[in-house]
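### Sample
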Amino acid sequence: MTLMNVHAPTEEKEEEAKDCFCQQMEETYDSIPSNDMKVILGDLNAKIGKEKEHRGVIGTESLHDTTNHNGVTLIDFAEIKNLIITSTYFPHKNIHKRTWAAPDGVTFNQIDHVLKEKRFARNILDVRTLRWSNCDSDHYLVQVKYRCKISHQRSKQYEKCKKFNIDKITESDKREALQNKIKEIKDNRANKEVTVEGIWADCKTTIITEAERTLGYQEEQINREWFDEECRESINLKNKKYKNKKGGV
């Protein structure tokens, strides 16, 4: 998961500064790996309203009724990147939606926001301000309750390595067949200019092919060397005593 912290220019800043910020934010966002869960949060200096035409990106629980210019820019960015502004979705008292207080102590705005990809929207459980937290700032601390779901990555299934039935190599005819094939390769290559890699490739292919034909593969067996006849007799005796005891009750 990647948290992208931003601080946008205020509404009164020049358009050039705003455009530069938007470009930088988009480039930074696009540089994050696509398989990461991405969260944008911080001071966006954007008022988000409750306009119906923006449903799907914003909720109905914003502090403001009307979106300002910075808010429209943020909504456009969210639509392009398939994000939602989660800070406008959760019902709270207005005092818990305010994220910034003016020096006059009367004016309050909701300009700090949390944006999340729509496909992971349910991971955000709540967004609200904590008024009691002393941050030494004109902004309130914003709390985000996040539920992280990490899917279990299945381990890659590897094909079991087959083993040749090397017990058969003790048989003279099987052993001689392999020896003759290897000698045949050596004789055929004696007067030819070939690389070491070429000789090894032919030798490997011939040995495997001939071993499959003459030796075959071992049958897959469960290794139970510890379980011998003594263990089997002990288990049978135990089961017999258990049945006799049960029948006598």
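The chain has two domains: 2-146, 166-248. This sample (Endonuclease/exonuclease/phosphatase domain-containing protein) is used throughout the tutorial notebook.
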